[in-house]
Amino acid sequence: MIVTQVMRGLGAALALLRREPEAIKRFDNSVGGFWSSFWALPIAIPFFAPIHSGQLRLAEEILREAGEALPTGDPLGFWPAVVMALIQWTTMPIVMILVVRMLRLTRRYALYVIAYNWGSLLWTILVSGVMALYTLGIVPLGYFQIVFLMLGLGQVYYQWYIARQALGVSIFNAIAITVLYGSLSIIVGLTLAQFMPGA
What are the domain boundaries of the chain? Predict the structure, then answer.
């Protein structure tokens, strides 16, 4: 049952990424589909490992090029980083409760969260693949920075497209929601960083 939901959710998220016609309708927009979409969070945890390793290597390379001393061990730790990422992940659906009420789109909230959760899992998998290639030395730093920038821009566009398709909002409202998404990620990340080990 869960495997079927995961495959359906990721398939719909991929179809949405490819801008396939009526891809948004491929999500399971039911009460069960809504709650099943939150399986995306624990499923994403293993994929945070290569992301975390890649971030550590990137920090080391930047410090080395700057001629600064390298930190010993892992300054943050894997599990605190996972907790931070999951809190950032869940903040947007919570805040969107207020947004859809203001826009009078409460009936479309579930579909947005479903698409957001499976889309976030898909993007986590894509980023983890790139990070793994970088950590293993297959992708050099210069190319990695270009690819990572493209992934970042792609994620912003994807969040905009989810808002457009799931909520049916105007282009400008979708932009505002995307800006809200980016702002929340930064604010929550910076706030949580103050309470993490080594802060």
Answer: 2-193
Per-residue tokens: 70: 């390298």
User: Would you report the helix, strand and coil content of the chain in percent, each value rounded to 5?
Assistant: 80, 0, 20
Do 61 and 141 contact (CB within 8 A), yes or no? yes
Length of the chain, please? 199
Task: Give me the pLDDT at residue 72, please.
Answer: 63
Low-confidence ranges of the chain (pLDDT < 70): 67-76, 196-199
Neighbours of 65 (CB within 10 A): 9
Long-range contacts of 75-81 (CB under 8 A, 24+ apart): 75/197, 75/198, 76/196, 76/197, 76/198, 77/196, 77/197, 78/48, 78/49, 78/52, 80/196, 80/197, 81/48, 81/52, 81/55
d(CA 140, CA 113): 36
For the question of whether the overall pTM of this predicted structure is more than 0.70, the answer is yes
